[in-house]
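User: Some background: our group keeps a shared notebook of sequences we're curious about, and every so often someone picks one and asks for a predicted structure to add to the entry. Today it's my turn. The entry only has the sequence so far, pasted here. Could you supply the structure so I can complete it?
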Amino acid sequence: MNIGFIGAGRAGCSLGKYISEFCIKNPVFAENTNITGYYSSKPEDAQWAADFTNSACFADLNAVVTASDTIVISTPDGAVMKVWDSLIDFDLRGKIICHLSGSLSSDVFSINEVKGFYPVSVHPLFAFSNKDSIYKQLNKAGFTLEGHEYAVNAWKNLLSQLGNKVVEIDGSVKAKYHAAASILSNHVLAVLATGYELLEECGFSSEEARSFTKGLVSDNIANAIEKGCVESLTGPIERNDIATVNKHLSVLSKAQKEVYHACGNKLLQISAQKNPKRDYSQICELLK
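Assistant: Of course. Here's the predicted structure to add to the notebook entry:
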């Protein structure tokens, strides 16, 4: 695979660097895998990415297409179709065309039967907080793949050699999959922010609120990952402690109460799974 990138943002730079570093450490792997380089609408970004990955800086789209048998569109989701419209008239026969979007499927690359290329979406389930060092943590990331069988198998083989977990999904569930990823990463922060806010209202500093609850938060997440949410669940809702839940609701602001209600109703569902014989009807009324 000779992999060229269109777009030089955090995800594209990190993935290119991750692969190129593996090539340096594994010469046999490098015999069949190469980062050809980067093209960007901002030439200075492409040059930075090329220097970063020891690859080429392409001056135009034709150059990156010609040099690569695998083309990765690593732009924001909203720009993927614009880039694709610019590529569609090139000779793409036999090439793998992919994007890194979590929400878009490979179906955005239309007319592949006519053009003879292999479409695929490659999504790292990972938060790219920067583009100069976060690649060092990509070995922990899982990747989802969907698209043409040939392209999926090629990327599965590549990522498996890199040591990453890979799961194939259907293109029809990409939006739901991406919603799950957002909830598990971004939405969790909304819950944490609400808890920290309440502690600050109790007199904690922002730093104290985070450090004081570090064990509580991290252990809870670790238990959920290891045992599942049902087995890990504790607390007043699970215990059916109506008085305590009522006290909580009586001291919360409107916005805080909305978070408590939304999360509490989901906790009720989990509690019912854990304790199927317990009557949660009164708490259910409180959380309506």
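Suggested note for the entry: The CA atoms of residues 242 and 282 lie 7 Å apart. Residues 2-169 form a domain with the Rossmann fold fold (CATH 3.40.50.720).
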